[in-house]
Amino acid sequence: MAKKLFDYQLDEPVEGFFLLKDSEVRIAKNGKKFLAINFQDISGEISGKFWDASDQDVENFQAGRIIHLKGKRETYQGNPQIKIQQMRLTHAGEPQEVQQFVEHAPLNTQTMEDEVNQFVFAITEPNWNRIVRHLLTKFHADFFSYPAAKKNHHAFAGGLAYHTLSILKLAKSVADEYPHVNRPLLYAGAILHDMGKTIEMSGPVSTTYTLAGNLVGHIVLIDEQIVEACQQLKIDEQSESVLILRHMILAHHGLLEYGSPVRPHIMEAEILHDLDELDASIQMMQTSIGHAEPGTYTERIFAMDGRNFYRPTHDQTKGDLDGHASQD
Amino acid sequence: MAKKLFDYQLDEPVEGFFLLKDSEVRIAKNGKKFLAINFQDISGEISGKFWDASDQDVENFQAGRIIHLKGKRETYQGNPQIKIQQMRLTHAGEPQEVQQFVEHAPLNTQTMEDEVNQFVFAITEPNWNRIVRHLLTKFHADFFSYPAAKKNHHAFAGGLAYHTLSILKLAKSVADEYPHVNRPLLYAGAILHDMGKTIEMSGPVSTTYTLAGNLVGHIVLIDEQIVEACQQLKIDEQSESVLILRHMILAHHGLLEYGSPVRPHIMEAEILHDLDELDASIQMMQTSIGHAEPGTYTERIFAMDGRNFYRPTHDQTKGDLDGHASQD
Amino acid sequence: MAKKLFDYQLDEPVEGFFLLKDSEVRIAKNGKKFLAINFQDISGEISGKFWDASDQDVENFQAGRIIHLKGKRETYQGNPQIKIQQMRLTHAGEPQEVQQFVEHAPLNTQTMEDEVNQFVFAITEPNWNRIVRHLLTKFHADFFSYPAAKKNHHAFAGGLAYHTLSILKLAKSVADEYPHVNRPLLYAGAILHDMGKTIEMSGPVSTTYTLAGNLVGHIVLIDEQIVEACQQLKIDEQSESVLILRHMILAHHGLLEYGSPVRPHIMEAEILHDLDELDASIQMMQTSIGHAEPGTYTERIFAMDGRNFYRPTHDQTKGDLDGHASQD
Amino acid sequence: MAKKLFDYQLDEPVEGFFLLKDSEVRIAKNGKKFLAINFQDISGEISGKFWDASDQDVENFQAGRIIHLKGKRETYQGNPQIKIQQMRLTHAGEPQEVQQFVEHAPLNTQTMEDEVNQFVFAITEPNWNRIVRHLLTKFHADFFSYPAAKKNHHAFAGGLAYHTLSILKLAKSVADEYPHVNRPLLYAGAILHDMGKTIEMSGPVSTTYTLAGNLVGHIVLIDEQIVEACQQLKIDEQSESVLILRHMILAHHGLLEYGSPVRPHIMEAEILHDLDELDASIQMMQTSIGHAEPGTYTERIFAMDGRNFYRPTHDQTKGDLDGHASQD
Amino acid sequence: MAKKLFDYQLDEPVEGFFLLKDSEVRIAKNGKKFLAINFQDISGEISGKFWDASDQDVENFQAGRIIHLKGKRETYQGNPQIKIQQMRLTHAGEPQEVQQFVEHAPLNTQTMEDEVNQFVFAITEPNWNRIVRHLLTKFHADFFSYPAAKKNHHAFAGGLAYHTLSILKLAKSVADEYPHVNRPLLYAGAILHDMGKTIEMSGPVSTTYTLAGNLVGHIVLIDEQIVEACQQLKIDEQSESVLILRHMILAHHGLLEYGSPVRPHIMEAEILHDLDELDASIQMMQTSIGHAEPGTYTERIFAMDGRNFYRPTHDQTKGDLDGHASQD
Amino acid sequence: MAKKLFDYQLDEPVEGFFLLKDSEVRIAKNGKKFLAINFQDISGEISGKFWDASDQDVENFQAGRIIHLKGKRETYQGNPQIKIQQMRLTHAGEPQEVQQFVEHAPLNTQTMEDEVNQFVFAITEPNWNRIVRHLLTKFHADFFSYPAAKKNHHAFAGGLAYHTLSILKLAKSVADEYPHVNRPLLYAGAILHDMGKTIEMSGPVSTTYTLAGNLVGHIVLIDEQIVEACQQLKIDEQSESVLILRHMILAHHGLLEYGSPVRPHIMEAEILHDLDELDASIQMMQTSIGHAEPGTYTERIFAMDGRNFYRPTHDQTKGDLDGHASQD
Where is the HD domain (chains A, B, C, D, E, F) (predicted)? Predict the structure, then answer.
């Protein structure tokens, strides 16, 4: 099988098919145009510059196109980059499907959907069960295809559902260990907590924030959906069970300064917040460690206070670590 | 006219009718019951202790009753208190109406309603106008009778509408001075910004927070009402004008750590936040200064970082300052 | 079975045997002595005052004694208290064993030891395994009898081992879900992380901090024990595996301001920190919720930023919630 | 009338007269000199680079010169810039006056002076009135020509007086609405609050901070002037009225961390601080929004915590918004 | 020699002459008056309550009187207190001089004056020398009799000069060790840095803050004096040497949030700030440790972040430590 | 004597021998290699770029080589840089010793050793004396050759011992002035406080952090050495005197957020922290001021909150200020 972008060592020649994730026209100091490109395949992204771009080049090499590249893996200011030697569009018979180059969740959609449904079955409180089913149906396609964030953790297609599922599995362990935890409430909150991101973000590819995302935010956007669901399902939106469910979502960022309008005042809301952070942290650390050699440090992770992490020399699991696509 | 509670000087004999705002039964160190009382009239509240309370006294002197008091104005740990000498329930022909003893807004309800309506006329954007009218109608009674807060600023009957009206007047001045300000947006946001407090709080008297208030909060509670109003008025809730109006309310606490789920990203939302704080500050300072003698400092105001304020010796306006009831 | 302290409702007569957890002689305002007492049984602690104490009373009713009490369950400034009517020392044939009145871990020592040992088997890295066994043996008695803290979470006999075991179970769930987690490292770190508390604190009863605890702290105290263990076991203390294990312990408070001299820079150290906080939070919330009635709020939990938590009305599990002694 | 800098659209050819606000000689990577220029007219500033500058070019194109430019409006890393095609000095008969190109207050000096004087009349306290007149006379020329700041808000000629006047108008509204506000005190404080900037800064053009500005700061610099004024006017500088006036100036930054040596402890000092911030914020937002297209976000405003602001699509007032020069 | 207040052990009978530092009339729960007293001698202060005070007692036992006391040294809520058994005014022939009971600087005024003068000689820069002499003369009496603060460090008569002198001695050591330090500047700044406290505070006894102290603050108050001194001494107040000297004083609190309007931007200003804090800290620690037994902790020191300090068991210097009066 | 790097003025031709401190190969925008170089001599470091580097150039001009340079002193974005005109390796007979170009402590090793020993003599407590001697012997070579930090203060060969010695001298002054300070404890703590840096850092040249440095940190690393020393010297490591000494080291960063696992709770630990900061600050200010012209500001000092410092015009000591090499 063809080498992936992150399989190439420093100074090694690179040859293969890649997706142009970004391709921006800029003016060089000599007055000529060049393209600032991010090459992508399922192992991640690396940047490169295409110098002295003709108008035809600008036309050909737009973001979203798949190209064939010859070049070299170099380093620029500590970050990997590709020195481009030759680049052309693909021919018939060569790879044409963007999906093959985009990182996506390590589980396929059907598997994730089946697993989420198992958790829905366990939501035995009828109001919560109906609201969750209603909104899962309403946002079905986006929920299973969106990333969980523009960058940072789970920033890949299907990342939202995958992140939700990871939290649900942690939630199950917690509910098994601490029997006083309200299992249906924790599951219902976990499934809905980030669903507002399907309204906050523009889509799974070239993700930007919508105006509603910027002015209202995903927390309030999904809260409003719960209220609407109650109206359509004839559930009293002022009932304690609905208020508690809404609180799960509203409080899940844990601190006001992280954007929750209220802090957790229900035990399960506090637990949901903790598990959300735990899964996001592990996901970010695993991704970064997968890109570092044993015995070295990862790059600094912005969303973890800029810390870098040491990959011990005895840790030989790299092949697995970046294998989000391993089961494809 | 009878002297008010705050008219009595230190060590002066007190005699008059007062409302028992709070009256709590406690056990003294000698094992006997006593009542910890807050006496109230429109000039404010002062505490006192009724020692050796019999079961009949406990029965008689409950919160909400109006009593006749003989006593002395003393000081306990720097705060004024009343030493109770004699206390009895009122007779027929003596004051019986709680309203006479409760601090309330310096404007009567009809006046406030008329003035608010003048501002509604100036909301020329049709969606905003319809939403504001709809919610003003829906919450009419509570909006004009609730306090703006449990304590701190405008913690009196009618305080919510009075605070709203003060902001509207400041908003008018700002819109007159800075012509690029969107006047209809600023007015609509000002009228709605704290209306959720009618859901967050239990009522104008003996105010507590409701479960919805604690778990959801007044910001999101009124946001949800805007969304419902759109549905009933057939206004597209995803339209830019609605998103902007919702942003006005969601962002009006200014900072995430003050409970807004988003910071202001619309000029008028920033202005609304500033005017909200300005009016609350002036109201708190005026109340405290009204209780201090010229040439002395007020007590520390908790909600203004615990600062106290100096009342200059040349400031002889005390009579006016605490006269919320002046037009009665 | 006899009623427990927290089974009595407000104003209900109280009669039974209790431990005097604290009993402090003070001078009342009338110049006479009184005893400020904390009564304890396995359901928790409630305070009371014994007025007009004679010298014989002071002699009799010292902390650590078991007494028979007649009184009434009252409330003082929002907290439960006991009004003492009659109090005497126990006679022969009445309860004499302090252990019966002291809250302790819901698992007995042998069970906890067996379960911890299962996790030790899974520490397949030989250095870590030997160090953990060495220190578990060295601190065996204290590790299984100490509380995890003076107050806040797991402040009961056996709390240290119970807290450790809860984290180990969470750690197992995490290692099962995220296969790149180094399971032996996470288990070894979890077992050792708070073991220094056996040096930091004076003992399981009437716990105070030792001088070493105050001047050095439990994090560095156990780090020093790891270094000593290496010397005795002829393990190179500068080897990467030892440095990583030490880092697990040194970094487990997560932030410098919480007393860790380094922040986590190993993935498993970050996870250990997160699970430590998660278990402590759940334990504190469960305890407080167990003391609140359904449909009311708990008291504020100091170690969780002073937040209180709402116990939903549909939560009828109180009997279980405070039943740490349920299996005895 | 000729197009202004901010009237040109992306990729539109630019031709016209502009001021060289900055022109810095740098060395390009090819070893040749180039000029890093900021072009200015009354609509604002845009940067550009003059490549391969000869010694004659360096000599000609110095900061402060007016030039004729042919070029193109481009974008560089999200900010507008001018690609220079041809540039020459102006000839006789072409614009020569720097004042025509410099942004300045939207009111002319005489108007501002007249309006300020109206407020001085209303300062009925004799000490304050005499001090204000004395210092207005002493710093007259600078007060009406200086900017209010080096950058951020009101960073244009006459900005100091214009900012002062805006605050005075807001102050009038507040004093009208809240009758207990001491109007003369608020006006006197507003006029003097930033007058120290005439000592702190070097002048209206190419503004830098003076040594006194850096080592003492404008707050203390004007406080010292009040003290000197008292000595010359034979006013007792220890009188309460002088202490209160000084407090207005010393406290006007509101928080110690913003450089006030005392926090506001007089109601009018708190109000002055609030109005100062309100006017500065509105001014910054208006300027940024005037440079953004409807339906887009402004650049981030550093002095407002780096927030950007959304200009609604229905806001068609751009022409007015950047028209500081509109009445000229 | 008679025992001092802090020489008495817990439960030891107390008999001797003491000053009534404070004596406040309060009403007990039984309705009778009592006096809340602070007894003082040169070893410190301890509180006590005088129950059932008659009008004659209130008249006799006012603050400032010297009394003869019989009582017992007890503890109340962890703090030492005196149980009063008998108390009477002093007779002829018994101690009458308040000075004997007031803590004061361990050096007498003449010694401090001589030592300060030695440092003045070393201020070789003529402007600084003249300004320092001028202000030392102007504030001579107060400078050598005032405390350095109302509470916290050096809160005793002569404390201001003593604190200044301690800093000067540290400054000499620093200037000896780091030859690039400007010695005259450091000395001049040290002498003047807190001199404004003679204006900020009401006097050496029963110290309160003046209005000027509250509204302007000691930093700006002495800065103003430097400016006035320049005018009287015909020194150019805008000269660099004067600006630098003023900066020394203005910046000496180190951080804006501690009340300096500017942070140190001159090396000697930074050093002055550091030495000011160092001397204050050592003084506070020495005082507290002097009141603690070897092998115990001090009370928490509010101005040092509430930390307490351990007095090692081998530290047998207590007699010396609290001996501010040792030379009397 | 030859001019030093910092002796050259702007635009002055540079010619002389320098050390290549760093030399990094990078790719220019034209695709050719260049070297990003830091030139060093004992006056400091200045950067420069060597364009169009051949493979032979890359081979020749590696970090650690001494070269002969012809060029010009220029400025790039406000920082000094060297424009390289000609560069060659040194010939026989020209300077070859790296030591001549490296900044080092102003005292030679023998002098520092003698002076430190004088302080060791004054450590009269036998345990402390033996521990200090033991560790001084063990880490002798590194202690006298390492820098005190990678950058910031004392970042030169011998800086660790020089910094230690400066603190010891300040400590002597403090102990002389405040007789209750425990002199032996303060000296012992000062000598050991940063000795862990010899384990934390890789060495005196091209300093990096070791794995132990990153995962454990210098504070805990030297604490562990004290414990080991106790074991070898048969000193009871749980004795109060050892706990106190360890506390001196553990607490010397003063605040938890600066990496101390405990805050100072011993007077001498607080003093050690203060003197450590004082010496580091003065050292940083002196170095920066030595690089600035009189009448100008230094560059911003990162470790002093980014402040810059003004070098007064009357300060003519520059020659001395940067003369770390003055006694060579």
Answer: 160-281
Residue B18, beta-bridge partner list: B67
Show which subunits contact F, needing at least 3 CB pairs below 8 angstroms: A, C, D, E
Comparing CB atoms, the residue among D27, D29, D31 nearest residue F29 is D29
Strands C44-50 and C79-89: parallel
- Break chain F into its structural domains and give their ranges: 5-101, 109-283
Which chain D residues contact residue A214 at CB under 8 A?
A: 310
User: Which CATH class, in words, describes the domain spanning D5-101?
Assistant: mainly beta
Nearest to A238 among B212, B244, B266 (CB): B212
pLDDT averaged over chain B?
89
| Banded model confidence at residue D105, pLDDT cuts 50, 70, 90 | confident
Among chain A, residues having any CB pair with chain C shorter than 8 Å are 166, 169-170, 173-174, 177-182, 240-241, 244, 263-267, 270-271, 274-275, 277-278, 281-282, 285-286, 289, 297, 304-305, 307-310, 312-315, 317, 320-321
**What is Dmax (Cα atoms) for chain C?**
69
Nearest CA-CA distance, residue F36 and chain D, Å: 13
The answer, yes or no, to whether residue A137 has pLDDT greater than 70, is yes
**E281 vs E309: CA distance, rounded Å:** 12
Write out the two tokens for E167. 């800093």
The answer to whether B34 and B53 have CB atoms below 8 angstroms apart is yes
Q: Are strands C44-50 and E33-41 parallel, antiparallel or unpaired?
A: unpaired
Test D27 with F310 for CB contact under 8 angstroms. no
Task: State the Cα–Cα distance between residues B84 and B212, nearest whole angstrom.
Answer: 40
Q: Which residues of D touch A31 (CB under 8 A)?
A: 51
Please give the distance of CA E84 from its chain centroid, rounded to a whole number: 28
Q: Which alpha helices (DSSP H) does chain F contain, by range?
A: 55-60, 109-121, 126-138, 140-145, 159-177, 183-192, 197-200, 211-215, 218-233, 240-250, 267-290, 318-321
Determine whether the interchain pair F265/E179 forms a contact, defined as Cβ–Cβ distance below 8 Å: no
Residue A31: which residues within 8 A CB-CB, separation 6 or more?
D51
Residue D104, pLDDT score: 82
pLDDT band at E325 (very low <50, low <70, confident <90, very high): very low
* Residue C77 burial class via C-beta count within 10 angstroms: exposed 0-12, middle 13-18, buried 19 and up: exposed
Q: Is the pLDDT of residue B50 over 60?
A: yes
How far, rounded to the nearest angstrom, does the alpha carbon of residue C28 sit from its chain's CA centroid? 33
Say whether A259 and B259 touch across the interface (CB within 8 A).
Answer: no
Pair B318, B312: CB distance under 8 Å: no
Q: What residues of chain F lie within 8 A of the CB of C262, using their CB?
A: 214-217, 259
* Nearest-by-CA chain D residue for A211: D310
- Contact flag A214-D83 (C-beta cutoff 8 Å): no
- The CATH code of the domain at E109-283 is 1.10.3210
**Whether the Cβ atoms of residue A289 and residue A298 lie closer than 8 Å to each other:** yes
> For residue A326, is pLDDT > 60?
no
ipTM: 0.85
In the numeric block, which tokens belong to residue C8?
Answer: 């009595």
pTM, two decimals, is: 0.87
Residue B226 has pLDDT above 70, yes or no: yes
pLDDT digits (tens, 9 = 90+) for F247-270: 999 999 999 999 999 999 999 999
